[in-house]
Amino acid sequence: MTSGMPTKTVEVFKAVAYFAKNGKTPTYKEVGDVVKLHWRQVPTRLYSIWQWCENRQPPLPHLNAIVVNGKTKRPGVGYMPHSHQLSEMEFQKTKRQVFACKWDTVRFP
After folding, report:
1. Mean pLDDT for the chain?
2. How far is CA 20 from the centre of its chain?
3. DSSP character at residue 84
4. N or C: at which end does the chain have fewer Cβ atoms within 10 angstroms?
5. What angle do CA 75, 39, 71 make, to 5 degrees?
6. Diameter of the chain measured on Cα atoms
7. Using omega within 30 degrees of 0 as the cis cutoff, is the peptide bond preceding 109 cis?
8. 93 Cβ contact list (under 8 Å, min separation 6)
């Protein structure tokens, strides 16, 4: 565990950053498969990543936002960065920001 984060959060960060670098929106299951976690354990790690991105100065795009539900192809209902679920326009804007970030130069955490 790193600085109070759940185990495997660093691995989830690296996996999602790799997907972002390649312009992909992985599902919770795909991320879980990469890091050897059940997909239901992935959101807890993504929440830690969101907090970390949000608290950076300057804040980073929400890397966690590109991880989607396999059926809806949208972030899970727990991701509400502005106290509401993202509209399609907000989701597309966030994805563009995440994909544009040079995650391989970001040191996490």
Report:
1. 93
2. 9
3. S
4. N
5. 45
6. 35
7. yes
8. none
DSSP string for residues in 52-105: HHHHSSSPPP-GGGG-B-TTT-S--TT--TTSSPPPHHHHHHHHHHHHHS-GGG
Structure tokens at 31: 């991320």
Q: At what angle do helices 28-35 and 42-55 cross, to 10 degrees?
A: 100
Per the omega criterion (within 30 degrees of 0), is the bond before 6 cis?
A: no
Q: Which of 29, 45, 36, 52 is nearest to 103 (CA)?
A: 52
d(CA 31, CA 12): 7
pLDDT in tens, 32-59: 999 999 999 999 999 999 999 999 999 9
Model-level pTM? 0.91
Q: What tokens does 82 get?
A: 């502005």
Q: Do 45 and 93 touch, CB atoms closer than 8 A?
A: no
The tokens of 41 are what? 């354990």
